[in-house]
Structure formats: C-alpha cells, structure tokens
Amino acid sequence: MNSEVLEFANSLIYSTLVSSGFIIGAILSVIFRYPERLRADLSAFAAGIFLSSIAFSLIDDALKEGSFITMASGFGVGAIAFSIMNRMIQRIKEKQKEKVDLLRSNESNNKNGISSPGDSRSRIIILGIFLDSFPESLFIGVIIALNLQGLIAVTLALFIGNLAATMEGSKRMFDEDHNRIRVIKQWFYIFAIIAIGGPIGWYLEKPLDPQHLSIIIGFAAGALMAFVTEELIPQAYKRAELHIGLSASLGFLLGLTLFHFI
What percent of the chain has pLDDT over 70? Predict the structure, then answer.
C-alpha cells in the first residue's frame, strides 16, 4: 500500500471517528433519560470542548498555514454565515408558529401539511452541526495530508464535543418532534456527510495553496464560535443558570489537556 492510499484511508477513518459522535449521541439519547440539569451540563461541556478546539487547534493551524488576514477572513465569513442562516431559520420558525397557532389540534396540523415549530428548531441544530463540523472534518484531512501534529488530540476533542452536543441536541429534537426514527435518520445523514469530509480535505490540500487552507480552517473556527455562542451556551443557561460555567470550564480544561499532552 503506497503512502497516498494510506493517507486517504486514514483521513476517512479519522473523520468517521469524529462523526460517529453524532450517531452514538443520538442513540444514547433514545436509550437513556436524563434531567434538565444534565442536559445543561452537556451543552456547556460541549461548548468548553469546542472553545478549546478553536483556541488551541483551529486558530493556531490557520495562522501557521496562512496569515492573520487569511485566518481572520475565514473566521469572519464562517461566523457571519452561521449567524445569517440561524436568523433565517428563526424567522421561518416564527412564521410557522403563527400558522400552527391557528390550528386546533395536531391532527388538523398533519392534515393541512403544516410543519411544527420543532421542525425549524431541528433545522437550526442540524445547520449548526453541519456548518461547524464539515470544515472541521476537512481539517482532519488537511492535518493528515500535511503531516501536522495533534491529529489524535483533534480527533478526540471533536468526537467528545460532537457526542455531548448531539446528546443534548437530540433531546431537544425529541421534545419537539416525537418521531424518533426520523430524528435519528437526520443524524445519520449528518454522520455520512461529515465522514466524507476527511478525504475531501485530504484531496483539497493538493491543489489549494496554504492561504486557501488557512481561510477554510478559519471558516471552521468562526462557524464553531457562532454555534457555541448562539446555540450551546444559551440552551445551557435556559436550563440551569448556576453551574454551567463549571461544566464549560471542565470541557475547556479537558480540551486543553488533550492538545497539550497528545
């Protein structure tokens, strides 16, 4: 087996490991029942993990590959892209809620083909995961192609963050959409799409110059920052105001430990 085939296979394996957190998290959400406080802890913990990934991996490698300007450009575009899409879906949710409020029962809702507000919330969660995780999966392939350090640490940090975020996000989706099979299917689609990101990132490293790679990695950092601040932290604070800081700090410390020692 030549080196290119081995690198390609590794990019697929590691990106699959990262994306497996979605499937595992969704299944755990079906099997186990956990209280609101734990759901808040999961959101905050995932936020801490992702913040450490931004600070100690994505930003650092984006700067190494390009410059501050390329990193900041990608970061800004990523944050803006997520925020705009998030707002658009929020507006859809508000309009759908107005329509649903006019209906007298869930049966009439189904007959008229009007989706529930939970459908929009599910789209927000899925959108956030996609905008955040697909560029990160590309990053896995870039690390392998460039033989950069920290591959195992990045894989573990992203897997744990995705697992925690999916366990909480799946519960929200189950609360608003009682068709659990449909929810799990949505997570399976995300798993499949994110899993192929590693090989794509490995392939893109060949024709793209370091400046373009810096922008892509910066985009991942910006989208992830927007997702953490607009979705994970607010959802955690809604459920438990007093201790989410500890959970977020624990997640951040775990991420720092991974990046420092592995």
Answer: 85
> Distance between the two ends of the chain, CA-based, in angstroms?
27
How many other C-beta atoms are found inside a 10 Å radius of the C-beta of residue 207?
7
Task: Tell whether 21 is covered by a domain.
Answer: yes
Beta strand ranges found along the chain (DSSP E): none
Q: How many CA atoms lie within 13 A of 6 on its CB side?
A: 4
According to DSSP, residue 104 is labeled S
Residue 245 counted as domain residue:
yes
Report pTM: 0.83
Question: Would you say residue 135 lies in a domain?
Answer: yes
Please, are residues 89 and 230 in contact by the beta-carbon 8 Å criterion?
A: no
CB distance 35 to 196 below 8 Å: no
Which residues of the chain, if any, have pLDDT below 70?
A: 1, 93, 96-97, 100-125, 127-128, 176-178, 241
Residue with tokens 């999916």: 166
pLDDT one-digit tens code per residue, 70-127: 999 999 999 998 888 878 877 776 776 677 666 655 555 555 544 455 555 566 667 6
**How much is the pLDDT for 87?**
83
CB 201 within 8 A of CB 140: yes
List the domain range (segments joined by +) for residue 10. Answer: 3-26+36-261
For residue 252, what are the contacts with CB-CB under 8 A and spacing of at least 6? 48, 49, 51, 52
For residues 107 and 185, what is the distance between their CA atoms, to the nearest angstrom?
23
How many domains does the chain divide into?
1
Answer yes or no: is 56 within a domain.
Answer: yes
Q: Which residue has the tokens 């991942």?
A: 220
For 188-203, write each residue's pLDDT tens digit: 989 999 999 999 999 9
